[in-house]
């Protein structure tokens, strides 16, 4: 695992992100909240109205799980079902690659919504060691939503999502992971004055109205 990270750090040819960061540093908003809080839903709406690219860590991990020949497929599948957080060496490389590809295709696309990351201390440390100086984290957009609402939304989504973790057993584990591992990360950013909180228990449109006022203010 460590090899992946150190391999990246020590590579001789400066990475695209490094070179781009010298010109226009990627601007990042971390999007956090419990499972089913509406992160993906709101990110889609943000992308329609603002010049952001949405990267969901969960979506990237599911794509890697499905990729033929992936050496991490099995591991990712079991972590997702158990509601555990995949080792960051895997996730950060998927995020870095996705950011690089986006910028490579269009250099004006340097604003990113990174959804579902960093979800624990390991995620945060991985980000800091790989991305430090290469991207600016503007703030954390926090979708605050009670556990029961989160569970109900995921169970409803589970009727058609085909997700292996939208069931009651996995959801109880996901909520525990959220409370034990993700909330402390949000609290760390809170202490830095970097959290923008939205009451996510309301309707999609009401939540989005608050999101818009935050993004309009932040510029
Ligand atoms: P997350 O990415 O945070 O897990 P999603 O955006 O996928 O959450 O939303 C989870 C489920 O809840 C989806 O089925 C979505 O359609 C629904 N949903 C999202 N936001 C709301 C909302 N504000 N009110 C009711 N249902 C919502
Ligand atoms: O954000 P989403 O609900 O799509 O995440 C689904 C699952 O993907 C998480 O419960 C977790 O198992 C995995 N994941 C992860 N690390 C992240 C984001 C998601 O391990 N940073
Ligand atoms: Mg999601």
From TrEMBL:
It is found in: Cytoplasm; Nucleus. ATP binds at residues 36-41, 157, 202. The keyword Protein biosynthesis does not apply. Its cofactor is Mg(2+). Binds 1 Mg(2+) ion per monomer. HAMAP family: Adenylate_kinase_Adk, Adenylate_kinase_UMP_CMP_kin. Monomer. This is UMP-CMP kinase. It comes from Parambassis ranga (Indian glassy fish).
